[in-house]
Amino acid sequence: SDHMENIYGYLMKYTNLVTGWQYRFFVLNNDAGLLEYFVNEQSRHLKPRGTLQLAGAVISPSDEDSHTFTVNAASGEQYKLRATDAKERQHWVSRLQICTQHHTEAIGKNNPPLKSRSFSLASQGSANSPGVQRRPSQNAVSFFNVGHHRLPTGKRVPIMQPDHLVDVREMMSQAEGQQRDLIRSIECLPASGHLTSLDQDLLMLKATSMATMNCLNDCFHILQLQHASQQKGSLPAGTTISWLEPKISLANHFKNGAAQNFPAEINKPASVREEQSIAEPCQLTREPEEINPDEELEDICDDKEDDLGAVEEQRSVILHLLSQLKLGMDLTRVVLPTFILEKRSLLEMYADFMSHPDLFIAITNGGTAEERMIRFVEYYLTSFHEGRKGAIAKKPYNPIIGETFHCSWRMPKSNVATDAATSSSAHSLSEQVTLSKDPEGQAEPDYYTVKFVAEQVSHHPPVSGFYAECVERKMCVNAHVWTKSKFLGMSIGVTMVGEGVLHLLEHGEEYTFSLPCAYARSILTVPWVELGGKVNINCAKTGYSASINFHTKPFYGGKLHRVTGEVKQNMTNTVVCRVQGEWNSVLEFTYSNGETKYVDLTKLSVTRKRVRPLEKQGPFESRRLWQHVTESLRDGDIDKATEHKRALEERQRNEERLRAETETPWCTKYFLKDGDGWVYHKPLWKTVSAAQTQQTDSN
């Protein structure tokens, strides 16, 4: 090939977290199929500092920027490299890919392809078992029987037809089943002895087999796209092309309401078939649904999360996961083990941040702008304890796109703190509302209602929108959050990108706020969670702001879960309140007049949310959607929970692929895109403004 020339030049190579990026001189040896590097060009005549065999390697441009790319060798070794610009990266990537393809095909010609593979772990019960006699230097792969079969020569491979693609899909399903059996067999090995589940060769085999199946799935997807494009080019205009996988059931809602029926797989449990293809008697719709709070009942579900404790029994699972991760790697697309999951969706977790509705409603009752800002800070800091369920290191379910969660709270009016200066005006306002809404003289309810709705509006990136309102007090909060997870060695960090806005319509005030980062620490011993980072709360109209710091624990000494903050008037730069303490324990508020207030979060009353029964929930409401995963976790059946979770995730991937191929955009149900954020489709500030305009016109 004309492109098979040797190339060389300087690239930056990532070494480790301490050393970082370093310039190295790289040489692509096309004849030998090697990528070599040296300290500099002058040392090129010396022995290379490092060498990668390119046969079977994968060359991948990075999503991080336009300069970075990785070379993943078949041996498992990886080079993370960075060119000076996008053009130079493309030059290196294309030449490396050509060389890799050439040498991979050369190996394929000398080694006949495999027709089938069967894996079986050697019996561990026999005294003559190879596992007992295994020498330390013996490769673990020798314990697996791999059958080779040479394909007939001289026969031309026919062009793939739709039926052939279905057969390929079935064979891949069988291979995936064998791969899962292989993983289970390895994980069932004893934790000690000559051959253990922590054997480095076996861990590598697990990772390699999983990567192989992922690669095969990607190749199969490319075949589907190629076949579809060929069909579109050869068929007359207007001809419809049926989906090439009729045996795989998909959900109806990928077309946002288009009713389609797919046959369910009869060899799977009914609950799994329901997760893969929700067969609803009614047509699914993306039209907003008005939830009647009177249909909601007080939540009797009390899923207290136990600490994970020591994770010795799950160490092999965690080691297998860690073997696939790199420092700083984005975990958005990484499937985490089921045993670390909470029994609730992320959308419900956001709802649990509202578990103190009395403090939320009391914000608007503050007599002055200063008091309202302080009350908001108090509510904000007390929300994390219940929202995070303390410092338990468990993770809520990742919501699927289109998933929603609804709930409400009823708070007795007598339990909400008021301000003496505003109590009479608030009371007269309530009377006006009662007179206008209850002409028959019915008694006004003695409670406030706070309604909540959340929706997963995007899958990549994962963005959630949530909205809460109290109509009686003319206040609402709208927020959108993009969760970005990264691997940090022995910790996992989650950045909450986004913004929330609290609207106090009685005062014409808007309070913007952000959320702190969360960290799962000590993931190989006793995992625990802490919050970290600086957040700001601002009210442009009043000029008051708050700065809050969530402190992560230092390496030596220091307290856990510490938080400090201050509220100040920006115009005068005067601090009117300081706060310190622990976000999951006791908070101390010190005011400018010298008074001090203590809030013990462990003794703070929690108002139970009200949720519709499962039978009245829609198929994509969180609790109904995840009910089989939750039930399995309650029963302690991790394997069954994993099966149900995998079915939901597989369905979501298939739907996303179909939308991409059919160029069908996703339509949200409750939230609308607004610039970089998402806004509830019928926020209170719009309805109140419309009502006031209508009242003005009538007068």
Automatic annotation (TrEMBL):
<dbReference type="InterPro" id="IPR037239">
    <property type="entry name" value="OSBP_sf"/>
</dbReference>
<dbReference type="InterPro" id="IPR011993">
    <property type="entry name" value="PH-like_dom_sf"/>
</dbReference>
<keyword id="KW-0597">Phosphoprotein</keyword>
<keyword id="KW-0333">Golgi apparatus</keyword>
<keyword id="KW-0007">Acetylation</keyword>
<dbReference type="GO" id="GO:0032934">
    <property type="term" value="F:sterol binding"/>
</dbReference>
<comment type="function">
    <text>Plays a role in regulating ADIPOQ and FABP4 levels in differentiating adipocytes and is also involved in regulation of adipocyte triglyceride storage. Weakly binds 25-hydroxycholesterol. Interacts with OSBPL9 to function as lipid transfer proteins.</text>
</comment>
<dbReference type="GO" id="GO:0006869">
    <property type="term" value="P:lipid transport"/>
</dbReference>
<dbReference type="GO" id="GO:0031902">
    <property type="term" value="C:late endosome membrane"/>
</dbReference>
<keyword id="KW-0813">Transport</keyword>
<dbReference type="InterPro" id="IPR001849">
    <property type="entry name" value="PH_domain"/>
</dbReference>
<dbReference type="Pfam" id="PF01237">
    <property type="entry name" value="Oxysterol_BP"/>
</dbReference>
<feature type="region of interest" description="Disordered">
    <location>
        <begin position="638"/>
        <end position="658"/>
    </location>
</feature>
<keyword id="KW-0967">Endosome</keyword>
<dbReference type="GO" id="GO:0005829">
    <property type="term" value="C:cytosol"/>
</dbReference>
<dbReference type="Pfam" id="PF00169">
    <property type="entry name" value="PH"/>
</dbReference>
<keyword id="KW-0445">Lipid transport</keyword>
<dbReference type="InterPro" id="IPR000648">
    <property type="entry name" value="Oxysterol-bd"/>
</dbReference>
<feature type="domain" description="PH">
    <location>
        <begin position="4"/>
        <end position="101"/>
    </location>
</feature>
<feature type="compositionally biased region" description="Polar residues">
    <location>
        <begin position="117"/>
        <end position="136"/>
    </location>
</feature>
<protein>
    <recommendedName>
        <fullName>Oxysterol-binding protein</fullName>
    </recommendedName>
</protein>
<dbReference type="GO" id="GO:0005794">
    <property type="term" value="C:Golgi apparatus"/>
</dbReference>
<comment type="subunit">
    <text>Heterodimer with OSBPL9.</text>
</comment>
<keyword id="KW-0446">Lipid-binding</keyword>
<keyword id="KW-0472">Membrane</keyword>
<feature type="region of interest" description="Disordered">
    <location>
        <begin position="104"/>
        <end position="136"/>
    </location>
</feature>
<dbReference type="InterPro" id="IPR018494">
    <property type="entry name" value="Oxysterol-bd_CS"/>
</dbReference>
<comment type="similarity">
    <text>Belongs to the OSBP family.</text>
</comment>
